[in-house]
């Protein structure tokens, strides 16, 4: 196979398997090419990704070595996208009762989900994440998008028992805006002990739901490796949680005046982009 | 930019935008290359994808023309994956009460979701789909995976009212195993009139839930463009729905004897793979 064909196939193959370590002999065999040619191909791939600030190709030396594609977005891409997203969120048509914001179009748009997923996966690209966790329903697409780029499984806490999942562990938590105590649960078989869990959710008011998820993770003797939300309500004074990151901060929601103010959140300032 | 670099970037760019028509002048400008060079690049990309039976590159001639990447999987890949999936589903540990089958690991695994999404998107690659629809909770990851490869939005019917979605339309339906009447609803703003909707779900017993979704789509004066489920219970005699496709058929679930039998479903026989 020619270099040009190898590069097309290699790019596709690696992009479909983020974070997987692929041994060089695998490519050498797949293309019937010398290892030195494969190394040259990978060098082209690496610098093309780096030039676009859109992905890192890591080469691991030695007998157990190989090559790994790490989805990683440059700071300028991140800033540009979050600024655009915040502006789109400022549409007053999004205002719903109770200070909530309509986000289902964004959370159901593959192009947004890819960018959001890539961005959160960039932040945690070099963290040790075994699994992404969220709670039904609207966090699910976010969890899936992040899990895809980290190439780890994702799991979903449920708000009520379902017969189709077997035994569960449950915790109580204070749900949205501190007004009531609810219950969330996770099937016992979905999470192993000592897992490193990245929590994600679509919208955070005071953080009660995330606190519930943290508690649930602890019940499984596992660790919180990070907490990241798409939007956080910055106007909510009483926060039940610390150390979380957000893609967008909602500064104000005024249903009467039809005003919603949003800006990029804390994620970018807490991401080390110097990896290219 | 050299051909080798262009090919890496072009492959990545097109893969990130399935079904989008990209005008050739866009690439010519992006790479500072002649249109004839871009055409040669695209020819390499096209035959490399075709050789692997993993994707179609369509060129559209004329002033409004360009190039489009269509995720499309060859029949052999499809057969191989579905046979493997059916075998994995035959694990007796998956048997749950009521003839249900534990599938959350598959529905939360990015590698499975990519293959499942690509397979369903192959079947509907040349159908006119505006939106993918499912019902919470477990169908969501499936809908997202399919929507990603068709590059259309996906929407989620809910089982109960949520304050965060505004006005809704609701219908009643006969839920799992015909034992009770439930309600499902969809926010009015998520679906436009005259949309072509592809329905997907994780597990079908008699099909009551899918019937409810069909009814809901009709309430929005929209059309059902297809119905596809991950697993259908072949042992369930009374079917409320016709013309649906399945990736896997569950032939038997016996909790006492710890036996579960599965085989590839009807999707492959109803897919035209002669497109490469």
UniProtKB/TrEMBL annotation, chains A, B:
CDD domains found in the cross-reference section: PRTases_typeI
Parts forming coiled coils: none
InterPro entries (UniProt xref): PRTase-like, PRTase_dom, Pur/Pyrimidine_PRTase, PuR_N, PurR_Bsub, WH-like_DNA-bd_sf, WH_DNA-bd_sf
Domain Bacterial purine repressor N-terminal, chain residue ranges per copy: 2-71
Domain Phosphoribosyltransferase span(s) in chain numbering: 105-233
Keywords for the protein's UniProt record, in alphabetical order: DNA-binding, Transcription, Transcription regulation
Protein name per UniProt: Pur operon repressor
Keyword Transcription regulation carried by entry: yes
Record lineage: Bacteria, Bacillati, Bacillota, Bacilli, Lactobacillales
Pfam families: Pribosyltran, PuR_N
Organism: Lactobacillus panisapium
Subunit and partners: Homodimer.
Gene from which this protein is expressed: purR
The UniProt record lists the keyword DNA-binding: yes
Superkingdom as given in the UniProt entry: Bacteria
Family as reported in the entry's similarity comment: Belongs to the purine/pyrimidine phosphoribosyltransferase family. PurR subfamily.
């Amino acid at each position: 196979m020619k270099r040009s064909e190898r590069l097309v196939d290699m790019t596709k193959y690696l992009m479909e398997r983020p974070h997987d370590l692929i041994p060089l002999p695998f490519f050498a065999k797949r293309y019937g090419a010398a290892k030195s040619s494969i190394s040259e191909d990978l060098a082209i791939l690496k610098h093309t990704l780096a030039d676009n600030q859109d992905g890192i190709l890591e080469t691991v030396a030695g007998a157990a070595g190989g090559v790994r594609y790490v989805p990683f977005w440059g700071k300028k891409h991140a800033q540009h996208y979050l600024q655009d997203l915040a502006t789109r969120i400022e549409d007053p048509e999004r205002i719903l009762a109770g200070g909530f914001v309509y986000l289902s179009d964004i959370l159901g748009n593959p192009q947004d989900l890819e960018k959001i997923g890539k961005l959160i996966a960039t932040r945690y690209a070099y963290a040790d994440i075994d699994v992404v966790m969220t709670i039904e329903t609207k966090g699910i697409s976010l969890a899936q998008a992040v899990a895809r780029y980290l190439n780890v499984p994702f799991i979903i806490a449920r708000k009520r028992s379902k017969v189709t999942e077997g035994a569960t562990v449950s915790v109580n938590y204070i749900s949205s805006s501190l007004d009531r105590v609810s219950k969330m649960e996770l099937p016992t078989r979905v999470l192993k002990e000592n897992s490193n869990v990245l929590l994600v959710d679509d919208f955070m008011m005071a953080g009660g739901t995330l606190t519930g998820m943290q508690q649930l993770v602890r019940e499984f003797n596992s660790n919180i490796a990070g907490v990241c939300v798409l939007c956080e309500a910055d106007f909510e004074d009483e926060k039940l949680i610390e150390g979380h990151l957000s893609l967008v901060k909602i500064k104000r929601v005024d249903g009467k005046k039809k005003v919603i103010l949003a800006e990029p959140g804390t994620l970018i300032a807490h991401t080390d982009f110097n990896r290219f």
